């Protein structure tokens, strides 16, 4: 496996080298970097032209300029990274660090959400083939996949930002809106659960009544402007998530796994009570990361203690439950600070930029600001990727479910959960892994348009500014970051193949 990885790294390095050469020569031949100065009436025009020629080394041959850039990149391995300067004399390395943090934050979050939602929908539609739910998801997938990114971004800015900001000033749903939302929720859930007509009607009615009551209560409590969740809510959601993970991984018949998941939720809530003063009064990113690592380690230890004969599976269950519990703790703190955030930023959902300029707020208000800034572009990129993941997962699952070994597993009397999770899903993941790797690279390209629409100063802006100015340094910095990210994702996909199918290791 090590030899395989080293060969892949070597091949990827050669691909990056050839692609960088092509990108550099295409960029420097895409226009005239002195065009704006030639048309200028500035009395110092000749001096400015001479300075730019010297800065961009236009008197040198293209090969010398490329070798100079490549030598600067090679210096990164020795701790002296030099990506050159822009046409205005600004260090590209500093610009790249800022732009890469914005873009990769957006792309990583969108990819993770798309994988979870898309794969889940693909599995459900494969299981419910040709049902109403399957048709609805299939239609929605093709719809979102076909939407122009810039047009969908404009719709999101109008309805999810501008109209929401107008509504949150009052924070009350009209009665007809509550009825409509409750009816839609009932329709969707009955389509997912399926069953006989009587069961569908009872499911829809129960969901309609529950959602209606909850929304009316939220209106009465002014919950949308002053929300509350509490320790009890954290425990309920964490415990429910743990039970769901147990049902998917081992089945509820494994009592050790069930007790381990519930123990993890209880320990997480107790830890929340103990660390709440620190999290509220002295929060920091270092503290959050440290507590998250501790939570994962404790969760794994709980799984090892409860595991028994299925220790590895139980450790997986408790680690997932621990991660969900940690996320719920952070969500509870953010919800508690929502009202104060509205006091600092009355129109919370922004449509421009990756953060609010000169924003003044405490740590948790700043986290909420970063979250609301990233919300719309993340939703947009996730919707586009979910369409791809759900369709490929569905087709891969359907192909796997028709294999002989799946029929054999069913004939042996295994439960449908075991057939789906242990036999079908694992083998269906191999083609899905390929799509995830390619989609990550495609998302980077789509993020250029998304960043332009939402005014993000990320890698897309760096690329566009460099290309318009015929300045190769920013363009090559974009290529370097996105190219390495795409290569790493494909390398991880290759490693995942070997983990999913041991035959590939040979």
Automatic annotation (TrEMBL):
<feature type="transmembrane region" description="Helical">
    <location>
        <begin position="173"/>
        <end position="194"/>
    </location>
</feature>
<feature type="transmembrane region" description="Helical">
    <location>
        <begin position="370"/>
        <end position="388"/>
    </location>
</feature>
<feature type="transmembrane region" description="Helical">
    <location>
        <begin position="428"/>
        <end position="449"/>
    </location>
</feature>
<feature type="transmembrane region" description="Helical">
    <location>
        <begin position="475"/>
        <end position="500"/>
    </location>
</feature>
<dbReference type="Pfam" id="PF00528">
    <property type="entry name" value="BPD_transp_1"/>
</dbReference>
<feature type="transmembrane region" description="Helical">
    <location>
        <begin position="227"/>
        <end position="250"/>
    </location>
</feature>
<feature type="transmembrane region" description="Helical">
    <location>
        <begin position="285"/>
        <end position="307"/>
    </location>
</feature>
<keyword id="KW-0812">Transmembrane</keyword>
<feature type="transmembrane region" description="Helical">
    <location>
        <begin position="106"/>
        <end position="126"/>
    </location>
</feature>
<keyword id="KW-0813">Transport</keyword>
<feature type="transmembrane region" description="Helical">
    <location>
        <begin position="201"/>
        <end position="221"/>
    </location>
</feature>
<feature type="domain" description="ABC transmembrane type-1">
    <location>
        <begin position="100"/>
        <end position="493"/>
    </location>
</feature>
<dbReference type="InterPro" id="IPR000515">
    <property type="entry name" value="MetI-like"/>
</dbReference>
<feature type="transmembrane region" description="Helical">
    <location>
        <begin position="257"/>
        <end position="279"/>
    </location>
</feature>
<keyword id="KW-1003">Cell membrane</keyword>
<protein>
    <submittedName>
        <fullName>ABC transporter permease</fullName>
    </submittedName>
</protein>
<dbReference type="InterPro" id="IPR035906">
    <property type="entry name" value="MetI-like_sf"/>
</dbReference>
<comment type="similarity">
    <text>Belongs to the binding-protein-dependent transport system permease family.</text>
</comment>
<keyword id="KW-0472">Membrane</keyword>
<keyword id="KW-1133">Transmembrane helix</keyword>
<feature type="transmembrane region" description="Helical">
    <location>
        <begin position="314"/>
        <end position="338"/>
    </location>
</feature>
<feature type="transmembrane region" description="Helical">
    <location>
        <begin position="133"/>
        <end position="153"/>
    </location>
</feature>
């Amino acid at each position: 496996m090590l030899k395989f990885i080293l060969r892949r790294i070597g091949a990827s390095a050669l691909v990056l080298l050839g692609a960088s050469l092509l990108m550099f020569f295409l960029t420097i031949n895409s226009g005239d970097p002195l065009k704006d100065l030639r048309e200028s009436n500035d009395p110092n025009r000749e001096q400015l032209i001479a300075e730019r020629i010297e800065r961009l080394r236009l008197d040198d041959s293209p090969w010398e300029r490329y070798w100079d850039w490549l030598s600067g990149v090679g210096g990164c391995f020795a701790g002296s990274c030099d990506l050159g300067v822009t046409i205005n004399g600004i260090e590209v390395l500093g610009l790249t660090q800022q732009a890469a943090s914005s873009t990769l934050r957006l792309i990583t979050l969108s990819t993770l959400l798309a994988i979870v939602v898309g794969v889940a929908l693909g599995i459900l539609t494969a299981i419910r083939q040709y049902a109403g739910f399957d048709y609805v998801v299939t239609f929605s997938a093709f719809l979102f996949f076909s939407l122009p990114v810039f047009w969908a971004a404009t719709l999101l800015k109008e309805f999810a930002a501008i109209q929401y900001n107008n509504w949150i000033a009052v924070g009350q749903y009209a009665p007809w809106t509550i009825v409509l939302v409750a009816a839609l929720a009932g329709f969707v859930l009955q389509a997912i659960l399926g069953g006989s007509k009587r069961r569908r009607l009872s499911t829809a009615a129960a969901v309609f009544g529950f959602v209606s009551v909850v929304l009316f209560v939220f209106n009465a409590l002014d919950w949308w402007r002053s929300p509350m969740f509490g320790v009890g809510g954290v425990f309920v959601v964490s415990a429910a998530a743990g039970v769901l993970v147990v049902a998917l991984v081992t089945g509820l018949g494994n009592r050790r796994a069930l007790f381990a998941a519930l123990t993890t939720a209880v320990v997480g809530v107790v830890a929340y009570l103990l660390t709440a003063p620190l999290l509220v009064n002295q929060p920091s990113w270092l503290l959050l990361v440290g507590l998250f690592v501790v939570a994962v380690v404790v969760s794994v230890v709980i799984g090892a203690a409860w595991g028994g004969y299925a220790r590895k599976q139980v450790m997986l269950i408790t680690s997932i439950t621990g991660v969900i519990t940690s996320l719920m703790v952070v969500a509870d703190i953010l919800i508690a600070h929502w009202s104060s955030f509205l006091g600092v930023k009355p129109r919370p959902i922004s449509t421009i930029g990756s953060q609010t300029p000169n924003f003044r707020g405490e740590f948790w208000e700043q986290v909420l600001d970063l979250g609301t800034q990233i919300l719309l572009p993340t939703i947009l990129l996730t919707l586009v990727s979910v369409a791809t993941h759900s369709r490929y997962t569905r087709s891969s699952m359907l192909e796997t479910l028709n294999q002989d070994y799946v029929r054999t597993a069913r004939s042996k009397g295994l439960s449908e959960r075991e057939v789906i999770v242990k036999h079908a899903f694992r083998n269906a993941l191999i083609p899905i892994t390929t799509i995830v790797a390619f989609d990550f690279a495609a998302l980077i390209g789509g993020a250029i348009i998304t960043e332009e629409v939402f005014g993000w100063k990320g890698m897309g802006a760096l690329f566009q500014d460099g290309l318009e100015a015929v300045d190769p340094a920013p363009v090559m910095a974009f290529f370097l970051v996105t190219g390495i990210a795409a290569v790493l994702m494909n390398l991880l996909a290759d490693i995942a193949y070997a983990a999913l199918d041991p035959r590939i290791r040979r």
